[in-house]
Each structure stands twice: as C-alpha cells, then as structure tokens.
Amino acid sequence: MAFLAGGQQKGMINPMDIPAFTLSRQIDEIGPQTEAAVNEVISSGQFILGAQVQEFERRMAAFTQAGHAVGVANGSDALYLALRAAGVGPGDEVLTTPFTFFATAGSILRTGAKPVFTDIDLDTFNMDPDQASARISPRTRAMLPVHLFGLMADIDALRSHYSGLVVEDAAQAVGATLRGRAAGSVGDLAAFSFFPTKNLGAFGDAGMVTTVRPEWDETLRALRAHGSRQKYRHDMLGINSRLDALQAAVLNVKLPYLGGWTEKRQHVAQRYQAGFAERNVEQVQVPVTPQGFTHVFHQYTVRAQNRDELQAYLKSRGIGSTVYYPLSLHLQPALQDLGYRAGDFPHSEQAQREVLSLPMFPELTDREVDRVVEEVAAFYQAGH
Ligand SMILES: Cc1ncc(COP(=O)(O)O)c(C=O)c1O
Fold this sequence. Notes:
Layout: H1 24-44, H2 51-63, E1 68-72, H3 75-85, E2 93-96, H4 102-110, E3 114-117, H5 129-134, E4 140-144, H6 155-159, E5 165-169, E6 177-178, E7 181-182, E8 189-193, E9 207-211, H7 214-223, E10 228-230, E11 233-234, H8 245-254, H9 258-278, E12 284-285, E13 293-294, E14 300-304, H10 307-316, H11 346-354, E15 355-358, H12 366-381
Helix pairs in contact: 1-8, 2-8, 3-4, 3-7, 9-12
The chain binds pyridoxal-5'-phosphate.
C-alpha cells in the first residue's frame, strides 16, 4: 500500500478499524488476473504502446461514448495535452474552479495560458454556471470544469452561457453521466486519471484524453510523442507522455469490473444518506445528486459542523477520513501571482473549512458504513 497518497492504511492495524480507502480487498478479488496480464506483457517484450494500450484506448473510446481515446502517462498530462491539442496557449484565459486538485490549474499554466477562477455551487462542489457567465471575457479560450468527487459539472448550463471550447476534468468521474451522456463525451475533450485510488485505478500512474473531435485524435498522438508523427521528424513541441503497457494491461483487466464497483459505491452512498437521515444528524450535509445526473462517488464528501474535531474523533475511534481540499487553489502559495485574495471565492473557502470525505470504496460492508454513521451521530450527540 506504500504507493497510496496520504498513507491512510498506516497505523491501522485493529481489524475493527475502517480506512478512508484501501485497495487490499480489490486486490484479493482480481490479484491473480492482473498478475497474469502483467506477466503476458513481460513475455511479449512490448513495453511501450502496443496491443494492450490500443485495446484499452478502443474500449475507453466506446465506454465514454467519445469515439476517440488516447492513453497518456497520467491525468495531469492528459489535461495539459487536451488543452494543447485544442491550441490553448499564451495570452489565453481558461475558466475553471478553485475547488479542485492542483493539477487542474497547474496544467493550464503549463500551456502558458492563465487560469481564471469562478466560484462553486456549495451543494455540488462544482462550477456555478451563473457565476461562470460573469467571468467570461474576450480572452476566454476554454472552460475547464471539474467533475468533482464523481458528480459531473452541469456542462449543459455552462454551454448555455458560453459557446467556446469545453475541456472536462473527468479525473474523478469515470462512468458518471449527465442527462444520459457519459463523462468524457460531453465536452470537446476530456482528461481522465487512473491514479491507483481512482474508481478505475492502475498500479501506478496512468491517464487518458478522450475527444469527440476526430481531428484532435491524431494531434494528441503526436503531442504525447514529442510532437512527432513520423520518426525523428517533429512538427510541434510535444512531451513524452505515453500510457505504460503494463498499466494498460492492468486497466484492461479492471474495466469490466467498473460497473459493478460503481453500483457498490452508490449503495454505500445510499446507506450513508439513509443512516444520517434516520438518526437526524443535521450537522452533516450529505452529497446532493441533482436530477439528470448519475454520481459515481469517487468520494463521499459531506459538509460537517466542527469538521476538524469530528475528524479527530473519528480517528480516535479507528475511522479514517480525508479533507479534499483544505486550501482552495486561489490561495495556494504557488499561484499567488494570479493576484487572488482570501474572500474572493466564499463558497470554495467555506467548502475547504467544512468538507470531510468519509470512507468510500466498493468493498465497504454495510456494518462498516453503519458504524461510521453511528460514530458521527455519537460525536454530535455528545454536544459538539
Ligand atoms: C480533479 C483532478 N484533476 C487532475 C488530476 C491529476 O491526475 P494525475 O494524478 O493522474 O496526474 C487528479 C488526480 O490526481 C484530480 O483529482
């Protein structure tokens, strides 16, 4: 488990403990199959691109309904390469959310463009379309909404204000849908991450760009190979960012399980919601799934009163939890040159104070979910 960020497993040795996330139960389920697939790649000697990568690209082009899928090294490169394929660069502005992982804004800056933040809707944690419309300028070259925690941003509403390019940050939303359309096919381009903790996770870094625009498929393939379409001829400045064949083999084994795993996550979410409602835990606001959306619950993120004390209490009871994200991007030291200040995005700043992601993974048992609910209820009953 050493590859997992955050080290949720460390120190959790009591069998009654409930980690925020663990892969060990999934590995019990599919370990032998993934080992066999990895061994096959080793025997084939085809480590860079090749059949496993092509197969995964083909299946993801269909799964996301986008029609085109290009495997890259990680989700951050996927965002950068999607923006580059569409021609985003210096002098451009890209509208995005301050309440996300750093890579969203980091990849905009890597293209030479400027991230322009717009506040979130506190119910969904995603870009608020009405506020976004007020931040569109003549320099706005693209919108980069994030489908945070597994719920898609309302791209239809965003598009009603903006007719330009939309790139989805779908890193947390593989399998999610918006009015019947899958994440990855609603924008012009989309970026996926297969970081090990994602709903579809590799055994290392991996990522993908999907696009509904056939002309960008070929550009993306060149950009991920130093801008080369023909060996040792470079038509543009690209990077080395290919999906590793060993990771593609693991992902090909896992993809058929994703639907079942997603249903289990949705079951866990329902049980949390019913449990909090039954116990009248009013201090906790559970995630909202608006009509027309399917939520894939990459995280089960509540807004909680006395969040830090609640997290410490849960930890003392052997229950893991995580704060995604404790500092909005407009307040990050690395992004101070953008000129934002505390107070600029009140919803994002409120979210960073209140959010808590409770244990969420497909193999969580009903008893474990019930125990988390009971402990949260006990914390507030004790007068917090
Ligand atoms: C919203 C979001 N965007 C981008 C990324 C970057 O993906 P990666 O870690 O694969 O580079 C992540 C995941 O870490 C993410 O959660």
